[in-house]
Amino acid sequence: MTAAEPARRHLVSTLERVAQGDRAALREVYELTSAKLYGICLHILGEQALAEDVLQEVYIHVWQGAGRFDPARASPITWLCMIARNRAIDWRRSSHRYEEALLAARGAAHGTAQTGEWDYGGDDRAGLLRRCMDALEESPRTSIRSAFFEGFTYSELAAHVDVPLATMKSWVRRGLAQLRRCIDNG
Amino acid sequence: MADAALSSEEFDFLAAELALGVVEGEDRVRALRLTLTDRSFRAAVQEWQDRFAPMLAAIPAVEAPEIWPRLEAMLEPVAQTGIVRRLKAWRIAAVAASGVAAALAILLAIETVPQPQPQPVTEAAVAQLLTKSGEALLVVRLDQASGTLRVRAVALPGGQRVPELWVIPAGGTPQSLGLINRTGTSEFAARPGLRAFLREGSTIAVTLEPSDGAPHQAPSGAILGSAPLSTL
């Protein structure tokens, strides 16, 4: 239990109403979460107009897919954040803006900003993931971050830092194996 | 495990790579195949998404511009699709399977005709789905401006189950585009919520499914064939 638990329960029950086609419930989800999800879209896409369009897609997806949310499997805000991330990455990949993305990635450090009031899994999973990411060597860490936030594939990651594909693959896989051990051991 | 060629370590790496979005080419096709055929693989991908998700916690919230009125205006067709879906389930239960897919495709096309979009150039994307042994199953053509799908069946197997078309976005789970005709051509508008998935590089797949309850939440049948959408 954390301080955010009531907010989490409320969001779960509101999503259940959305799954039954309740528009007022969707509006409530929108009001509760749009700043967080817009932040994610904006962070990944870097342009307000695009982020706005993708944000709209995200809530339409929630409207249609709320029935697929399983509160036993994921925290509601995590589920919503991943929809926003996947939508933004899908858009970004389809728009062939990797060079721009790279420039933006070089310019902006992904800092440790305030996390807001949301509970991302009940046991400070965000803090655990940060610790586990920080424990990785630099190459695996930056490659995994770049893939997650910029949507780069193996060959794009390899080209950007000018290493052979096999090297990039082994960096990422080493990072993934270490990350899994670290997270699962808590 | 469905794919005997993969060790359990490789199996988990592939799930992580798909969740992260780094995997490409043949490995990506293999991973997407597994999401369709192997429940434990889908679960492994989900577990990796859950492990990565807290990275998003650190991104600061930003007050969003007011998009609710625009968003609300777009909900109507979605609600109608829900009715169509229930109607479809009822009709499929009530009518013999053969002519139903065609009737439904028409019904779906009527009910979900999308708003015309101001797009100067009409671009088409196609996917030719082949069996593992390379025989053509069907050809999908997407009019990107209107979101209309035209599916031409080349040689789909017969039987009790009916062909269902899926789109698999990068790093995502399969989404049903609906049932299609076993022979001839099916033409219908993709549901508004799925149009964003229909992009160059998205994978289109076909499975055989029970005729009732479509569009299904997830495929239950083995994948007959899959191919990426490519722009002409």
Q: What number of structural domains do the residues of chain A give?
A: 2
Which series of helices and strands of chain B comes N to C?
HHHHHHEEEEEEHEEE
Oligomerization: heterodimer
Percent of residues of chain A in helical segments?
Answer: over 70%
Largest sheet of chain B: 5 strands, antiparallel
Q: Using the alpha-carbon principal axes, give the shape of chain A.
A: globular
Counting DSSP H or I runs of 4 or more residues, the number of helices of chain A is: 9
Q: Percent range for helical residues of chain B?
A: 25-40%
Spatial order of strands in the largest sheet of chain B: 6-3-2-1-9
The number of strands of chain A is: 0
Determine the number of helices of chain B (DSSP H or I, runs of at least 4 residues).
Answer: 7
- What's the CATH H-level superfamily name of the largest domain in chain A? RNA polymerase sigma factor, region 2, helix turn helix motif
Give the N-to-C terminal Cα separation of chain B.
37 Å
> Which term fits the overall shape of chain B?
globular
